[in-house]
Amino acid sequence: MQVDVVVIGAGAVGENVAERTARGGLKTVLIEKALVGGECSYWACMPSKALLRPGTAVNAARSIDGARQAVTGSLDVDAVLQRRDGFTSHWDDKSQVEWVHGAGIELLRGAARLTGERMVELATEDGTTTSIEAGHAVVVATGSVPTIPPIQGLDSVDFWGTREATASQEIPRSLLVLGGGVSGAELAQAYARLGAAVTLVVRGDLLASYPEPARRLVEAGLREDGIDVRLHTTTQKAAQDDSGIHLTLTPTNNDGGAAPSIVSGTKLLVSTGRHPALTDLGFEDVGIVPEDLETNSSGQVAGVEGGWLYAVGDAVGKALLTHQGKYEARAAGEAIAARAAGDLDGGTPEPWSRFAATADEAAVPSVVFTDPEVAMVGLTLERAREGGANAKGVELPIAVAGSALHADGYDGWAQLVVDEDRQVILGATFAGPDVSELLHAATIAVVGQVPLDRLWHAVPAYPTISEVWLRLLEEYGL
């Protein structure tokens, strides 16, 4: 079988690559062994946010006098789960398959692996194999898989990963959560608000890659929901018996020789990170060590003669976020189509062209959809200084007319990281209820490298939470 482009993996990232190459006139094959739409559609972004949103909406109403009196009941668990099921299309990919066909992309089902230069072998469930030759490019968009920690006894415990947690049809009486990253924090709060007694065990600090004040606001929000938050705590052992699942815990830095403690629950969620899904893809057959995979800004894999092999999204491991993966995919798809048409020379495209995914270096936006939320883009103050920038942090509580109207006792925090030499913003973080809607303005400021004296003329509407932008600039001295 001969085509122009083969895309391995039909998640959101693979779909975006294939759509761009097909739109560019290239015969494109998209290969998927599970559900078309991938992790985000069925087990990550969409179902987790669907589980979180009802609790956030109720809490928002309770935060306003006059509205809180109208909230007389608790969440309808069955309705929440049914709404979640709707967002996952009940784990049926029919509509996504229809979209693929409508975009002029050929969909093949099965497991794919590289077998040589521009060659892919497809193995289907019925045992047949097909060799596919790609005239222009093969793109690996296989996403990521959970990283399971080496905890004694864990392999004998029937635990959840994030897939099982986002797809569960019941709420356990009690839930132990291992991992204080984004997924661990979000799912701990979702399940607590749906009625589970939750214990969150974190080896280090909660949301460790975010600024300290933002972390503490989220921690306070989790504790307010009754979550038993155990920070700087190591899980030494896991065990399961008829009464439930039991974790043996010690302080991470146990210099004082503190005695172990035991926490128990009916279910255990392990959410301790993810890593690129690159096994059994045949990279070795084309001279690539999967652990050493590197790509340029248009997704071309380094060390492959002829530049025909691409990798995008979580498979590359740069920023494990759906929106960043889709961004990389758009750049790669555009570059493949342009190279096939002879409109783009080989090598790395110019920065900030549509063929280059350069925002991964210093302008990644991310949101933690806990309540309160955390929204961040670009560099933290520490990372900016480590990179050699003459950086200054400007930070304030979010206390403006818009926030006071938004919720009684609104508690939030904002920070800008300013390059003192160039007078532009390198990063921004907001923490508080509904701050995710502030993020795109910050992303534009960072990507556009908008000078502060020009940003001063971007007048925030009154009374909105965005007025914090004005207060931050005033705090800086403008």
From TrEMBL:
<dbReference type="InterPro" id="IPR050151">
    <property type="entry name" value="Class-I_Pyr_Nuc-Dis_Oxidored"/>
</dbReference>
<feature type="binding site">
    <location>
        <position position="273"/>
    </location>
    <ligand>
        <name>NAD(+)</name>
    </ligand>
</feature>
<dbReference type="GO" id="GO:0006103">
    <property type="term" value="P:2-oxoglutarate metabolic process"/>
</dbReference>
<dbReference type="InterPro" id="IPR036188">
    <property type="entry name" value="FAD/NAD-bd_sf"/>
</dbReference>
<feature type="binding site">
    <location>
        <begin position="142"/>
        <end position="144"/>
    </location>
    <ligand>
        <name>FAD</name>
    </ligand>
</feature>
<protein>
    <submittedName>
        <fullName>Dihydrolipoamide dehydrogenase</fullName>
    </submittedName>
</protein>
<dbReference type="Pfam" id="PF07992">
    <property type="entry name" value="Pyr_redox_2"/>
</dbReference>
<feature type="disulfide bond" description="Redox-active">
    <location>
        <begin position="40"/>
        <end position="45"/>
    </location>
</feature>
<dbReference type="InterPro" id="IPR001100">
    <property type="entry name" value="Pyr_nuc-diS_OxRdtase"/>
</dbReference>
<feature type="binding site">
    <location>
        <position position="49"/>
    </location>
    <ligand>
        <name>FAD</name>
    </ligand>
</feature>
<keyword id="KW-0520">NAD</keyword>
<comment type="similarity">
    <text>Belongs to the class-I pyridine nucleotide-disulfide oxidoreductase family.</text>
</comment>
<keyword id="KW-0274">FAD</keyword>
<dbReference type="InterPro" id="IPR004099">
    <property type="entry name" value="Pyr_nucl-diS_OxRdtase_dimer"/>
</dbReference>
<feature type="domain" description="Pyridine nucleotide-disulphide oxidoreductase dimerisation">
    <location>
        <begin position="364"/>
        <end position="469"/>
    </location>
</feature>
<feature type="binding site">
    <location>
        <begin position="179"/>
        <end position="186"/>
    </location>
    <ligand>
        <name>NAD(+)</name>
    </ligand>
</feature>
<feature type="binding site">
    <location>
        <position position="314"/>
    </location>
    <ligand>
        <name>FAD</name>
    </ligand>
</feature>
<dbReference type="InterPro" id="IPR016156">
    <property type="entry name" value="FAD/NAD-linked_Rdtase_dimer_sf"/>
</dbReference>
<dbReference type="GO" id="GO:0050660">
    <property type="term" value="F:flavin adenine dinucleotide binding"/>
</dbReference>
<feature type="domain" description="FAD/NAD(P)-binding">
    <location>
        <begin position="4"/>
        <end position="321"/>
    </location>
</feature>
<dbReference type="InterPro" id="IPR023753">
    <property type="entry name" value="FAD/NAD-binding_dom"/>
</dbReference>
<keyword id="KW-0547">Nucleotide-binding</keyword>
<dbReference type="Pfam" id="PF02852">
    <property type="entry name" value="Pyr_redox_dim"/>
</dbReference>
<dbReference type="GO" id="GO:0004148">
    <property type="term" value="F:dihydrolipoyl dehydrogenase (NADH) activity"/>
</dbReference>
<keyword id="KW-0285">Flavoprotein</keyword>
